[in-house]
């Protein structure tokens, strides 16, 4: 330990952390989690249709849609869009070739023939780029006036194309938030993913006065550009759709940053010897969600928004999910009313237990283990009076990400959980088999009830499973590190919420993880 140190950290480390809003005790707790990670999540079985996932017939879905329409008119709804992600991941294969100065088309083809994944993606991009929504913009961004892609490819060079797409003097897509990337084309109109989310929200969030509440979380580095585009989009689409957008924008606060370790389990430091404090993952956005003070809140990722050809179906299923939540809320609140009587009868207790088990899949202990009627009533109210979420689930199509599982939980908790692969011990044979047998995928498409029966917002911090931190390997500046992330927003961050899974059509899930995903039918104007 160096002179002037305090605990495992230098005095300078403590001062640096305080500027982030972090105290020494928080650093010490993060270090302990990195050195001694909590036990992995214990999977019991996958959630399947009829066993953890509801499949709705059309008449029932229509009834739920009508419920949502009525409540949206009352101004209860809001949309929350995590939009902090950078477009650099979308364009990572192109960026890799650009940075490495691999600009010869012949070399790209040779690498692709050897199976290089980046080169295969680059070739797919080149073959389909005329169908991309930003193609005309790219033409105007080529470094040499009068150049065109066909001419450049005819010369066997892609350097100018990459420079025009990615470089700061061109379109600058290397350093752009994903929210500002052009996603879809409508004749002469091109929409970014930000604009598509506004358009979609207008159809299921707006109230009877036309007010439409939307909240975006944004990276501080992109805040000014985001706001500039948002100002134009808010006015243009508000007038076009006859709504008045009420938009909130927030950033992931520095106090949610986390410590990292090097591969020798020492605090990871930059070349100047300062601690590297990294953004704490999407679980850090729980604070942003809390501060919206929302009632019924739709959550959907910035990169999951289909072309307008699918708008009607997408809106229908958003309404269905929210209608399901509202119906469940009303039933739960009625049960809480029964349980709040000074001495509820056994029939009320049994009714609440049966509902909790059948509708919410809560793990119910035997009645005799719950004590007197007053004790049982208190426990049941505690278990029912929680934030509620209804999550859309699509059939597994091999997309990367988490899925719905039954997990081992204490009595009174909900075993239906969204779990990421990093949370599971996949080296253990049984756990690996359960993971591989999953039939459905979590598209981060959910509706949340954030207020109790009196209209008071829940304190969401009370319903986090703090043991479900995520520890992953990352790299920066060519150096590997162990990164710590807060329990994921829809994983451990909502682990103690009451949860219902509903199957939705796979067509409602149109993620854009790489630029070539924009060539899929879900993002094309004509399929």
Describe this entry's structure for a reader.
It is built from 16 helices and 20 strands. The protein is of the alpha/beta class and 527 residues long. The strands form five sheets. Strands 4, 5, 6, 9, 10, 12, 13, 16, 17 and 20 form a ten-stranded mixed beta sheet that branches. A three-stranded antiparallel beta sheet has the order 3-14-15, with helices on one face. Strands 11-19-18 form a three-stranded antiparallel beta sheet. The protein is globular. A hairpin with a 2-residue loop joins strand 7 (182-186) and strand 8. Residues 1-6 have low confidence and may be disordered. Helix 4 crosses helix 9 and helix 5 (105-113) crosses helix 6 (117-128).
Write the layout of secondary structure elements.
Blueprint: E1 5-6, E2 9-10, H1 11-19, H2 24-35, E3 43-46, E4 48-49, E5 52-54, H3 58-73, E6 77-82, H4 92-99, H5 105-113, H6 117-128, H7 135-139, H8 149-154, H9 159-166, E7 182-186, E8 189-192, H10 193-204, E9 211-218, H11 223-241, E10 244-251, E11 260-261, H12 286-291, E12 296-300, H13 311-339, H14 346-359, H15 373-384, E13 388-395, E14 403-407, E15 416-419, H16 429-436, E16 440-441, E17 445-449, E18 470-476, E19 479-485, E20 498-503
Parallel strand pairs: 4-5, 5-20, 6-9, 6-12, 9-10, 13-20
Antiparallel strand pairs: 1-2, 3-14, 7-8, 11-19, 12-17, 13-16, 13-17, 14-15, 18-19
């Amino acid at each position: 330990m160096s002179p002037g140190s305090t605990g495992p950290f230098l005095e300078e480390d403590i001062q640096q952390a305080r500027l982030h809003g972090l105290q020494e005790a928080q650093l010490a707790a993060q270090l302990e989690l990195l050195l001694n990670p909590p036990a992995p999540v214990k999977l019991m079985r996958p959630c399947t249709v009829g066993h953890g996932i509801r499949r709705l017939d059309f008449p029932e879905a229509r009834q739920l849609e009508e419920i949502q329409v009525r409540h949206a008119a009352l101004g209860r709804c809001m949309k929350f869009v995590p939009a902090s992600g950078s477009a650099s991941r979308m364009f990572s294969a192109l960026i890799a070739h650009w940075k490495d100065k691999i600009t010869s088309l012949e070399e790209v083809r040779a690498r692709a023939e050897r199976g290089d994944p980046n080169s295969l993606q680059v070739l797919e991009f080149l073959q389909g780029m005329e169908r991309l929504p930003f193609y005309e913009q790219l033409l105007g961004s080529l470094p040499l006036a009068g150049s065109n892609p066909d001419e450049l490819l005819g010369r066997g060079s892609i350097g100018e194309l990459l420079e025009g797409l990615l470089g700061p003097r061109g379109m600058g897509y290397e350093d752009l938030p994903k929210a500002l990337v052009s996603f879809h084309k409508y004749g002469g109109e091109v929409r970014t993913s930000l604009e598509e989310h506004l358009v979609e929200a207008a159809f299921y969030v707006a109230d009877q006065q036309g007010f439409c509440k939307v909240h975006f979380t944004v990276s501080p580095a992109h805040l000014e550009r985001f706001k500039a585009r948002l100002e134009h989009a808010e006015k243009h689409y508000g007038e076009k759709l006859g709504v008045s957008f009420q938009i909130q924008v927030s950033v992931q606060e520095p106090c949610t940053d986390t410590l990292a370790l090097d591969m020798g389990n020492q605090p990871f430091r930059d070349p100047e010897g300062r601690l590297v404090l990294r953004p704490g993952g999407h679980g850090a956005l729980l604070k942003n969600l809390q501060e919206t003070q929302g009632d019924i809140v739709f959550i959907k990722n910035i990169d999951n928004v289909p072309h307008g050809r699918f708008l009607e179906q997408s809106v229908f299923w958003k309404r269905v999910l929210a209608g399901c939540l509202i119906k469940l809320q009303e039933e739960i609140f009625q049960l809480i009313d029964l349980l709040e009587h000074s001495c509820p009868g056994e029939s009320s207790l049994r009714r609440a237990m049966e509902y909790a088990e059948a509708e919410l899949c809560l793990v119910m202990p035997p009645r005799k283990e719950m004590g007197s009627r007053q004790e049982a009533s208190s426990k049941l109210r505690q278990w029912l009076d929680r934030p509620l979420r209804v999550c859309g689930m699509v059939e597994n199509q091999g997309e990367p990400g988490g899925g719905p599982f039954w997990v081992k939980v204490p009595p009174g908790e909900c075993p239906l959980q969204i779990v990421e692969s990093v949370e599971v011990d996949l080296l253990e044979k049984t756990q690996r088999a359960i993971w591989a047998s999953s039939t459905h995928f979590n598209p981060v498409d959910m509706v949340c009830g954030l207020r109790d029966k009196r209209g008071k917002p829940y304190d969401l911090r009370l319903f986090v499973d703090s043991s479900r931190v995520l520890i992953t390997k990352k790299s920066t500046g060519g150096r590997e590190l162990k990164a710590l992330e807060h329990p994921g927003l829809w994983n451990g961050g909502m682990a103690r919420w009451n949860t219902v899974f509903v199957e939705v059509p796979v067509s409602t899930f149109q993620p854009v993880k790489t630029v070539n995903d924009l060539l899929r039918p879900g993002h094309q104007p004509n399929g």
